[in-house]
Amino acid sequence: MSLFDKLVVKSLPLVPKPVVRYFSKRYIAGEHLPEAIYAVRDLNGIGFMATMDVLGESVTEKELAVNMLRECKEVLTKIKQENLDSNLSIKLTQLGLEIDYEFTLRNVREIVEHAQSLENFVRIDMEDSSTTDQTLEMYKTLRKKFSNVGVALQSYLRRTEKDVTELVKKPSNFRLCKGIYVEPEKIAFKKREEINESFLRIIEIIFEAGSYVGIATHDDDLITGSYRLIEKYNMKPDQYEFQMLLGVRPDLRDQVLRDGHRMRIYVPFGTYWYQYSVRRLKENPKMAGTIFKAILSRKNGK
Ligand SMILES: Cc1cc2nc3c(=O)[nH]c(=O)nc-3n(C[C@H](O)[C@H](O)[C@H](O)COP(=O)(O)OP(=O)(O)OC[C@H]3O[C@@H](n4cnc5c(N)ncnc54)[C@H](O)[C@@H]3O)c2cc1C
What we know:
This protein is of the alpha/beta class. It contains 12 helices and 8 strands.
């Protein structure tokens, strides 16, 4: 990222919300469920699986968490009715983790039970490091009863290699990503090479144990590295999948599919789009260009 792009990233909180909304359109399926259904049907039609995400996080009122619970269940019901190839991704702070652990566990259990009754699967996203212990605890608790629940792991956390070594002692289901939150160097690798080395080491641990992994990255080196490990461990196509975010590197996404691997696209939607959009925009290497294009096209009335 150029110095100019970095400056734009820093000033992102000053960008008016409608502008952020405009240039984050590519990352979000829409504000309502029918738009997300439409996007998933489209993706399924060209060979991709999906995971749907009702946007929202850091909920501090029980009523909002219960609304989220209802929406998540509705998504699962709709996936079944519409015969879509999609599962559901959830965030624990969207279901009450900042309010009360037991309350959140009840909410998540209800979603996972509903998914089970519909033969579907729920992935728990991993949020910032203040939530890691509780997220892994909840995953382990639910996993005792349900096989249709999985959790995301972050390769930038120094602890993850140890966590995964413990977790794979029981059959497990992971999504592995680099991690998106800003964490202190004490607990997180900062250099790209270290994060990538950690990523590939964790995949090896998972493959060796015979657990399932969704390899969630848009990084060419990690995809090539994963291909090597898939070959080394002679993994069958149903023992892993690749995952990418809606709107990010469709070229690479298509290539992975052409190379004969399964690919799942993360399809977020909903009215609480702001925090997610800002995270995606900060990762966009052409940040400044994207923003100025958006501002200019607004001025031109597009
Ligand atoms: C399916 C999925 C689920 C995820 N779930 C979580 C989660 O639960 N918890 C969590 O902390 N993180 C999650 N992430 C985010 C992840 O941690 C990374 O922040 C993000 O994927 C970028 O890392 P990367 O591996 O793609 O590598 P990067 O090095 O960041 O990106 C590789 C290349 O992809 C391109 N690229 C990446 N992002 C963008 C963008 N926004 N716009 C345009 N180009 C881009 C760039 O060309 C870049 O060079 C998830 C990611 C995916 C794909």
